[in-house]
Recover the amino acids of this structure.
């Protein structure tokens, strides 16, 4: 679109134009070649500026106009102008610009007036005016730039002055700090000088002390070498004396025929060796079980961590799907509600929107169906099997832990703190597994809500899938029904979202049961603490068992030494105390019995505990070796049985020795279990071959010669000879010797009587009949037999028979205390019989 530009008639403002007085002037006629044109004077009133040659009047008028314009601008040469700009320079530039505009107007008018008379003169003046204008324009610009530079310089100077002030303050501060540092340096110099003097004195003292320390060190080294030599000498001497004492003790035992003491020592050594062996076996098995337990718990931790992560990912994906479906429900419910509330109603529902709603219903149904597949199907079964595997791992570590607890329990009713902690841990783990099961199966109500939602969506989808799109009325009815169902759908889905991570069943919520939130990290940390406590307890118990074995060994050795000193003690030396000036005086039989009671109790308890703890382990070894067809698979089981046998044997021998010392029966254990006695009898039966070999060595006969003594009897090939058969053979041998007249012997076996009657009744009850054999000799008849003390004794078979008074029988002079008692009873019975007759 073109714009019309109008060129003004004059550059002089309108208020300065000079017009004619319309009240004086009339019409003027302008003659033309063809007509006469009458014009109004109001349209031709302007006489300044005019295109006619100018005169003085127009110059004066122009001067007056210029003065008026300058006065209007505010320029007055006589009075000082007030500043209106930011600075004096800005005000001056503003005045100069305005004056320049006025001068341009006046110059333009003068040039116009002159150009009327002479165009060249006017053109020259115009050129000069343009030069002056450009010059005057350059001056303000230059002044403005100079002013800006001056202002910038002033700002820079001001900043430099500020920095100078800051620098001056910093210099003053540094001067003050320098003064303080100088003062401090002076004080430190004094302190250093003083410290240097003290250090010089300390160095002198240290040098003196170092010299003295070197001397002391040399003395210490000499003393240490001397003491080491003495210790080595004493240790060697101690070892020599120990070996000598041990050798002397063996010689004394052999010389004094103290076979029971020797057997006591052998039982002690065997028991200690077997106990230490099974302590090592127990520790090794504990280490293996600890490793298995750690592997099982680590496997459970990894599987449970992976299971938790997968479950949380599945729940998070389900939550996102449900929220997306929920937002779709709300969007379409709002849209349908707005359409129903509109003036046109549901009829304004467009077909493209209807198809979009149908597609959304299909998508919602598929999404909800996929979400419900979490609670059934193959994936659900696989996940449930993983959870059951972790529950099985829990049962495995529980059984293994109970085995470890039973292996280190000193009493049946004892409950260890670690066992209580394990029960609490199992309760926590079971609660965690139950929570995961509820969340996995949807028993918290989520599965029911999703299933209900799926059924409703399927019903809505089927309606729209088989609906006739041309039937507007039916479509409107279905849309209204769907809009009414949307609040129910929203509520069902919202409840499913809220209950997704709640591990509480509907029944628990109705009963208002308390719910404790369980985190897998807390359960794992609790498990690690329990494992550390359990391993620490096992190590402590194994160490304690080793220490108990060493303590019992020490007590048994001390008791053996005390018994040996008591049995070989010289009564005269005992009164004068010649041999016990430096050693402790031998204990009395009562004190020995008290010590033996304590040692026997500890020995029995420890043997029983080791037997119970290692029984299952050894049986496992036997099964493994039997399956591998190894040689002698039950060797460890025999050693374990031998542990109790040696313990009981040691106690029995100790009872015999103490009974002989006190001359009355001594029982160290208040009661013996039938099981222990049966185990001892079984082991003795198994060792019958050993007894037979001992008998052949004692009699100096071979097995064939021993069988010759039993005419018509030979050793059974079914197995080794038992103790009963060996005793029966001895009785037959004695009978044969008596019948031939080569020797005679009365072989008696007293029946068991009450323990209160004497020590020998107790010994006969334990040992049974004396095992005896006769040795054929052409010169004399001597019977060698094994006595109650298991030593070998000799007895002359040709003892003179002594007639019993008032009884018509002859008897051998009794020697054994029990025989003496029986002889006295026989005499008393004969006297009573004579009196009755």
């Amino acid at each position: 679109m073109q714009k019309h530009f109008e060129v003004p008639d004059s550059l002089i403002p309108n208020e300065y134009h000079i017009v004619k007085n319309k009240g004086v002037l009339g019409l003027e006629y302008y003659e033309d070649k063809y007509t006469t044109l009458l014009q109004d004077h109001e349209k031709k009133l302007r006489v300044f500026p005019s295109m006619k040659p100018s005169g003085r009047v127009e110059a004066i008028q122009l001067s007056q106009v210029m003065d008026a314009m300058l006065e209007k601008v505010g320029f007055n040469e006589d009075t000082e102008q007030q500043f209106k700009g930011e600075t004096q320079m800005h005000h001056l530039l503003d005045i100069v610009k305005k004056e320049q505009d006025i001068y341009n107007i006046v110059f333009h008018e003068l040039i116009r007036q002159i150009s009327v008379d002479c165009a060249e003169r006017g053109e020259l003046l115009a050129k000069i005016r343009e030069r002056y204008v450009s010059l005057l324009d350059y001056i303000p610009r230059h002044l403005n730039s100079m002013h800006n530079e001056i202002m910038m310089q002033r700002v820079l100077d001001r900043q430099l002055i500020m920095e100078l002030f800051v620098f001056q303050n910093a210099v003053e501060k540094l001067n003050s700090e320098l003064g303080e540092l100088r003062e401090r340096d002076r004080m430190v110099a004094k302190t250093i000088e003083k410290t240097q003097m003290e250090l010089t004195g300390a160095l002198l003292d240290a040098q003196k002390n170092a010299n003295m320390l070197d001397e002391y060190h040399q003395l210490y080294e000499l003393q240490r070498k001397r003491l080491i030599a003495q210790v080595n000498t004493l240790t060697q001497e101690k070892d020599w004396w120990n070996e000598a004492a041990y050798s002397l003790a063996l010689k004394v035992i052999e010389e004094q025929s103290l076979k029971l003491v020797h057997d006591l020592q052998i039982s002690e050594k065997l028991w200690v060796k077997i106990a230490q062996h099974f302590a090592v076996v127990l520790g090794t098995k504990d280490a293996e079980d600890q490793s298995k337990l750690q592997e099982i718990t680590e496997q459970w931790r990894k599987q449970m961590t992976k299971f938790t992560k997968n479950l949380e990912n599945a729940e998070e994906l389900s939550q996102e799907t449900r929220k997306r479906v929920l937002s779709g429900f709300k969007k379409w419910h709002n849209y349908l509600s707005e359409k129903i509330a509109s003036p046109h109603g549901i009829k304004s529902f467009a077909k493209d929107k209807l198809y979009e709603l149908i597609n959304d219903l299909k998508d919602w149904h598929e999404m909800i169906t996929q979400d419900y597949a979490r609670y059934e199907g193959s994936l659900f079964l696989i996940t449930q099997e993983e959870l059951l595997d972790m529950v099985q791992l829990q049962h495995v570590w529980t059984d293994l832990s109970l085995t470890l607890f039973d292996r280190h329990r000193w009493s049946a009713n004892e409950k260890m703190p670690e066992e209580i902690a394990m029960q609490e841990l199992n309760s926590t783990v079971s609660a965690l597994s139950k929570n995961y099961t509820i969340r996995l199966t949807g028993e918290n109500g989520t599965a029911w809500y999703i299933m209900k939602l799926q059924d409703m969506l399927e019903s809505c989808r089927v309606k729209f899938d088989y609906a006739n799109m041309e039937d507007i009325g039916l479509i409107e009815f279905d849309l209204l029904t769907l809009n009414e169902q949307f609040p129910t759908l929203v509520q069902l889905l919202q409840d499913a979202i809220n209950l997704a991570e709640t591990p509480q069943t509907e029944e628990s919520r109705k009963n208002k049961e308390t719910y404790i939130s369980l985190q897998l990290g807390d359960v794992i940390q609790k498990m690690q603490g329990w494992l550390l406590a359990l391993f620490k307890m096992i190590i402590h118990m194994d160490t304690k068992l080793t220490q108990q074995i060493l303590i019992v060994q020490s007590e048994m050795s001390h008791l053996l030494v005390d018994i040996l000193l008591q049995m070989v003690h010289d009564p005269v030396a005992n009164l004068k105390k010649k041999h016990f000036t430096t050693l402790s005086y031998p204990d009395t039989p009562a004190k020995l019995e008290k010590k033996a009671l304590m040692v026997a109790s500890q020995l029995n308890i420890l043997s029983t505990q080791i037997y119970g703890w290692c029984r299952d382990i050894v049986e496992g070894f036997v099964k493994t070796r039997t399956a591998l067809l190894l040689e002698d698979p039950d060797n460890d089981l025999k050693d374990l049985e031998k542990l109790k046998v040696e313990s009981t044997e040691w106690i029995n021998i100790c009872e015999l020795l103490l009974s002989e010392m006190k001359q009355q029966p001594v029982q160290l254990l208040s009661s013996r279990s039938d099981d222990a006695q049966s185990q001892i009898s079984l082991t003795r039966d198994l060792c019958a071959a050993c007894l037979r070999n001992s008998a052949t060595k004692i009699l100096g006969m071979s097995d064939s010669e021993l069988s010759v003594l039993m005419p018509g009897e030979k050793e059974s090939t079914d197995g080794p000879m038992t103790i009963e058969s060996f005793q029966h053979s001895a009785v037959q041998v004695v009978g044969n010797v008596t019948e031939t007249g080569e020797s005679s012997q009365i072989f008696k076996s007293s029946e068991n009587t009450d323990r209160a009657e004497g020590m020998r009744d107790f010994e006969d009850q334990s040992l049974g009949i004396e095992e005896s054999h006769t040795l054929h000799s052409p010169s004399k008849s001597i019977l060698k037999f094994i006595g109650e003390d298991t030593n070998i004794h000799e007895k002359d078979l040709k003892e003179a028979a002594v007639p019993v008074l008032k009884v018509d029988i002859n008897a051998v002079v009794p020697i054994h205390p029990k025989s003496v008692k029986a002889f006295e009873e026989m005499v008393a019975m004969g006297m009573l019989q004579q009196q009755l007759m």
